[in-house]
Specification:
Layout lengths: L15 H12 L2 H15 L5 H8 L7 H8 L4 E3 L4 E3 L6 H9 L5 E2 H4 L6 H10 L3 E5 L6 E5 L10 H9 L6 H10 L8 H14 L2
Antiparallel strand pairs: 1-2, 3-5, 4-5
Length: 206
């Protein structure tokens, strides 16, 4: 459905200054107009119709199709067919944690990094507290925040399940430790040493 077809006809204002501002806004770059709208939504955290946006910042979102398309497809903007609003209404650490907890499969940090000024610091604080996990994808370089909840249901890709089932994993703990050492990973266990101590203690306690 094209929501623009239902908009009222443009009504010219009786205020010359308003007309000049709207005309000047239309002549400005598309990116500048979009920034004006997103700044309005971000700072107010309210919902606006297209007409209200035009009144507030002199940007007619229906005048230029490029502006309309980029706004409705923006990761920062919600559009329900009538009202535009900022997508993530988050302003503090508590609300940030609640947002991340609503995404058990993770949310890209790039999508929320500009939601409020100290969000990066708050992400690090939540990570240090063990309330969230922040993981990076080596290939895509994308950083994702996950709720640190062992009971959270997580969907696993069928291809990943298949790879896990087909993998030939070592059955003995010594073999696992050997593979980890070959991968240059630090071990938290030493089964050979533990087994030696266990046999020694059994001899001593006889």
């Amino acid at each position: 459905m094209d929501y623009r077809t239902s908009k009222p006809a443009f009504e010219f204002s009786n205020e010359p200054r308003s007309l000049q501002e709207i005309d000047a806004a239309r002549m400005s770059p598309v990116s500048a107009q979009i920034k004006q709208v997103i700044d309005l939504l971000s700072e107010s955290r309210k919902s606006f119709t297209a007409e209200q946006i035009r009144e507030k910042c002199c940007v007619d979102v229906f005048y230029n199709d490029a502006i309309f398309q980029r706004l409705v497809n923006s990761p920062k903007v919600n559009f329900d067919g009538k009202l535009f609003s900022y997508k993530h209404n988050v302003r503090d650490q508590k609300a940030l944690l609640k947002l991340i907890q609503s995404f058990p499969e993770g949310i890209a940090v790039a999508k929320i990094r500009n939601v409020y000024p100290t969000i990066i610091q708050d992400l690090q604080i939540l990570k240090a507290r063990g309330q969230i996990m922040i993981l990076s994808d080596i290939e895509s370089q994308e950083v994702t925040a996950y709720p640190n909840n062992p009971k959270a249901p997580i969907k696993v890709d069928d291809e990943l399940k298949s790879l896990y089932r087909e993998a030939d994993l070592p059955r003995e703990i010594q073999d696992i430790e050997f593979d980890l050492q070959n991968s240059r990973m630090n071990l938290l266990t030493n089964s050979t040493k533990s087994e030696w101590w266990s046999k020694l203690l059994k001899k001593v306690n006889r």
